[in-house]
Amino acid sequence: MTAPGNLCGIAVLPDEGTAEQVARAQALCAGALSASMPALGRPGNRVHASVFQFPACAATPWEQLLDVVASDLPAHTATVVGLSRQEPGWVFLDLEPDSCLNVAAVRATQACQEFVERADLFDESVVGGYPHPEQIAYRRFGYRYAGELFRPHFTVGYLDADAGDGLPDQVVDAFGQLLGLRVMLQRISAYRAGPLGSYASTLAERYLP
């Protein structure tokens, strides 16, 4: 399972205090996580909640898309409600399911459709490892978690194949301290994705209105 080289996304970014707390929690359990995903809080991976991630056309108008997605969003807060594993190995810090992130996800999915590089959606090297519902979502929308599969989250790590099933105790202990945390969502950003869907570089960004 590989990612297309033109993989980009739109994400909502938390306040700096939250980002620092999430990065510190990851550092506490770094030994249990894969080194193939860049560490959070360092160049190459910012703490972010993706609302849409897709193989993008070269002419994608990022500033325009951010305007559409960010306009009149409801309250810019969300609560950390859980920690989960998304197969085959992503570790999600789950955010409450009913927040401005869900509104942003619907808008981003709709606004980005004409800029999805459709030829990439049927590449078996990309979708071959996805569960069947995610393959359908990816081929239809360009994002494996689009539509009913969308789950607001921060991706906080990746587990190698030898990590076994479930989540290591070290990971649960490190991130468990963040459960119930009320997060301020401050900015919206378009980004170029790096290894394992990490936030590699910024294409456009602004504060939420």
Summarize this structure briefly:
It is built from six helices and seven strands, in the order E-H-E-H-E-E-H-H-H-E-H-E-E.
Notes on the structure:
The protein has 209 residues and is an alpha+beta fold. The chain has one domain (7-207): Cyclic phosphodiesterase (Cyclic Phosphodiesterase, Chain: A, Alpha-Beta Complex). It is 27% helix and 28% strand. It contains six helices and seven strands; from the N terminus they run E-H-E-H-E-E-H-H-H-E-H-E-E. The chain has helices at 16-28, 62-70, 100-112, 124-127, 132-141, 169-176, and strands at 7-14, 49-55, 77-86, 90-95, 153-158, 182-193, 199-207. Strands 1, 2, 3, 4, 5, 6 and 7 form a seven-stranded antiparallel beta sheet that branches. Helix 1 (16-28) runs antiparallel to helix 6 (169-176) and helix 2 packs antiparallel against helix 3. The longest helix has 13 residues, at 16-28. It starts with 6 loop residues before the first strand and ends with a strand. The model has no long low-confidence stretch (mean pLDDT 92).
